[in-house]
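Hey, can you fold this one?
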Amino acid sequence: MNSNNPIVSSVIKDYKDSQKAFLPRFVSIPLSQEAGSNYKPLVKVGDIVHEGDVIAETELIKGKKTFIHSSVPGTVVAIEPVFSPDGRQEFCVKIRFGGAFSFLGKKHQEKTASNLIGAEIPSKLTELGVLNTFKTSIPENLGIEIEKMQQSKRKPENVIVRLFDEDPYRVTDSLVSKFYFDELVKGARILAKAINAKGIVFAIDQKFADKDIFKKDEYKDVKALEMNIRRYPCGTPREIVSAFVRGPLKRTCVFCITKHDLFVDASTAYEVYKSAGLSIPSVDRFVHFSGDCLNASCLLEVKVGITLRELVSQLGGFVKDPAHIIINGMLCGISVQSLDIPITKYVKSVEFLSKKRRTDEQVYSCINCGNCRFACPVKLSPDILYNHTVNYKLLNERFTASSLACIECGLCNTVCPARLPLCQTIKVLKNKITEE
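Sure. Predicted structure:
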């Protein structure tokens, strides 16, 4: 791959297409994909599997099982420990590729929303392993999420699809929106059928290249909500609802969107189209690769379980030795150290950074500068919450409960001169409060 390849660029408008990654020799599929899951393998070493076969299952809610599918045909060669992109060590099913594909390269009969029964859609999404990666740090099985929302007091009334990435260092959803707009519309309509939605809203960049597409008759059921994505944070439900309430779209709609609606990203809407529309299990991911260690950036459709090490060869190898590997963006992502980490269903981007881009990793003591408080878009005191969690400086319950308002944008981390892990610590506190 070189810089003359038409699919690669550092500017979204110059990308011409996505591309399928090379077929891997091995895949290592972690036995955990969505948040809070711990799958039990259903295969053993020596078993022959086909593309799309169920290889693991778990029960996320009473009576509802979710599944992990094999992304390639082949032979199970090991069930062994592996480090996942979220930094955890867990077991994986390692499969040596071999045999014919069941879905790849085949012609599939398409079903539209009108051909599907709304009540059956969540179960199908659950069965085929579709995750909602609207928030990459907390990926959730989409079918289970929809069923939980429908059982709540405030049922979702609209489908909101974000066509850009919440992390400004990532362009994956923007590219998927550019290349697969028709499929996203079909996926959104399927979701609207599932929840009996009043409306479908696409949250778009105000500089979206083809706004006139929403004026076409075939897309008249889809409303475009323009947002200034240069302001961060932008892609959270809070910001999307605020943009709707304050913008001109509200005056032309017969519905109003709220934080209780169903929010998905472009990647998830595409997976919904593939699973519910084409009956293909979730075994592939669109991943954007970039960084100064690569000759050029690109968007690849990769098999779940393929390791970074195998992908590097298709990326043309490294022009510089990577000192950092950033998964899912500089602000919302995580830094990993190994090329043996596999791609999972919640990975959207991988950035390889050289030593030249490496920053100070030392954590210092808080100097009480207050920068984190000024930067916080929801007016929290990250330093105080950090000291409560790490240094055991006790606070009253009402103050600690304020951590639940954190949108995990990471701005407090970016302005902290002591390099304290403020956002990550508040996330730990939020999880503790939620569990209690």
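The radius of gyration is 22 Å. Let me know if you want another pass with a different chain boundary.
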